[in-house]
TrEMBL record:
GO terms for molecular function: carboxylesterase activity. Keywords: Hydrolase, Membrane, Transmembrane, Transmembrane helix. The keyword Nucleotide-binding does not apply. InterPro entries: SGNH_hydro, SGNH_hydro_sf. This is Esterase TesA. Residues 119-269 form the SGNH hydrolase-type esterase domain. Its EC number is 3.1.1.1. The chain crosses the membrane at residues 6-27, 34-53, 59-78, 85-105. It comes from Gimesia aquarii. It is an enzyme of class 3 (hydrolase). It comes from the Bacteria.
Length: 286
């Protein structure tokens, strides 16, 4: 995968963009004509990076940051505003970095009483079916680490389809990992339908003494609403949200996929290793 594409889809471009906007604000306090010209270019690059990163910051924060940034832009015509508005821009985008950073940290999973888990996914988990005989990553996980894995994954499943499968197959595992939603983004599911289905699925799965883990979806530019839904519902249902860069780092390797999305045999091996790294603390004392 192209490093620039990875930087954008992983959401890391948000940090780059924020830093560039802060740098532009600082440059605006300089009197040099060269600094002014560089400031414009740096600011534009920063805003583009923020927008295409599809980062799901709260609406209220984007509103506040937007107003402060507009006041700073207006200070180009009102010199007495320039310095304090530049410092305000630096401050608000520094806060943005602080608010976003926790979503890029790998969550910690608490110990559980039994060596079992449930996986809910689509073809990235189930494989392509048909002539695809590769051992899937849930099967590898079960074989290598003596786990009882309930695999509720199916080719082409959306969140809505996964909900119907869960309703027919009772889940009893203390850990449930959700790797679902890619077909909703790539298909015709609206953000409203996605939110409704995902909330119903999490409500169905939520139970005392059960930990839910959800892979955050790598998002193309302007698909931030899907990410906002995941984050809001993860907070509501106490779901451990795994940063999008984790899954993206797997499919970014050329040998890990068959078609840039679906996992190859090597990709399933890598996915199993990555997932085990996430859930291993849960079984450490078992």
């Amino acid at each position: 995968m192209n490093p620039i594409v990875f930087h954008i889809i992983s959401g890391q471009a948000f940090f780059t963009g924020s830093v560039l906007v802060m740098l532009a604000a600082w440059l605006s306090t300089r009197e040099s004509r060269v600094a002014k010209r560089v400031m414009v270019l740096v600011f534009l690059l920063g805003m583009i990076a923020i927008v295409v990163s599809s980062t799901s910051m709260p609406y209220w924060f984007y509103g506040c940051a937007g107003v402060i940034t507009l006041v700073w832009i207006s200070s180009c015509f009102v010199k007495k505003w320039r310095r304090w508005s530049a410092y305000a821009v630096i401050g608000v985008w520094a806060i943005a970095i602080g608010l976003e950073a926790p979503y890029h940290l790998t969550p910690t999973i608490k110990p559980v009483a039994s060596r079992s888990m449930t996986v809910i996914g689509d073809s990235v988990t189930a494989g392509l079916g048909g002539g695809d005989k590769a051992e899937t990553w849930p099967q590898i996980l079960a074989r290598k680490h003596d786990l009882q894995v309930q695999d509720i994954s199916h080719v082409g499943d959306t969140v809505s389809a996964a909900l119907k499968r869960v309703q027919k197959a009772p889940v009893v595992s203390p850990i449930v990992l959700l790797a679902i939603g890619g077909n909703d983004i790539l298909g015709s599911t609206t953000t409203e339908q996605f939110a409704k289905s995902l909330e119903a699925l999490l409500a169905e799965l939520s139970a005392p003494d059960r930990q839910l883990i959800m892979l955050e979806l790598p998002l193309p530019p302007f698909y931030h609403e899907y990410g906002r839904t995941q984050r809001n519902l993860a907070q509501k249902y106490d779901v451990a949200l795994v940063p999008k860069r984790v899954f993206l780092s797997i499919i970014a390797r050329g040998e890990s996929t068959l078609d840039s999305i679906h996992l190859s045999e090597a990709g399933h091996q890598t996915m199993a290793e990555v997932v085990w790294g996430l859930v291993m603390p849960a079984y450490a004392t078992d």
